[in-house]
Amino acid sequence: MARRGSYAKGIAKREEILSIALDLVAVNGFRRTSIKDIADAVGLTQAGLLHYFDSKDELWVEVLKRRDEIDDAHDWHASDPAALLAAVVRHNAEVPGLVQMFVNLSAAAATDPEHAAHAYFQQRYETGRTTMARQLREMQGDGRLRPDVDAEALASVMLAVSDGMQIQWLYDPTRDMAEHVELVAALAITQAATKVSG
């Protein structure tokens, strides 16, 4: 019985660590949030905190997964995949530290197949492309998107615009990330309407 209680406490502590780490990174930034900051906030030593994760990099991956879970559970009130992506990107402007973390890991460290976050980002992009391409094909089926557009290629371009705008936004926060994502989708949608009416 004691083992079961200890296991439940371990799970609860891990959840607390992830929630605190997510909040600290969102507010303070990725580079200004250390393992010591997180450990202090949850009442552990650094070694005690890392007992719950295989490495510091695994902790960051789990923080990103937690962010994804929260985003996935949110009702974005989006009518199509472009509107959904734009809504998420618009929200990201409210959590600059998480944008910084995502960019730092996805565009640099995690491109190494040996990095703890490599599989996470590889799967995330594959799932995002597949899901968005399916939704874009549905839009083609009901005439809201040009039928000659390669849905998977458009999904890849929209994800690339989203990620690229996040990098630009970190340098210049006056850039409207969501507006650029919407622009790419609007070009395909507008041309669909032109083709139908022409």
From TrEMBL:
MF terms in GO: DNA binding
Residue ranges of domain HTH tetR-type in the record: 11-71
InterPro entries per UniProt: BetI_C, Homeodomain-like_sf, HTH_TetR, Tet_transcr_reg_TetR-rel_C_sf
Keywords in alphabetical order: DNA-binding, Repressor, Transcription, Transcription regulation
Transmembrane segments: none
Known DNA-binding region: 34-53
PANTHER family linked to this entry: HTH-TYPE TRANSCRIPTIONAL REPRESSOR NEMR, TRANSCRIPTIONAL REGULATORY PROTEIN
Name of the protein: AcrR family transcriptional regulator
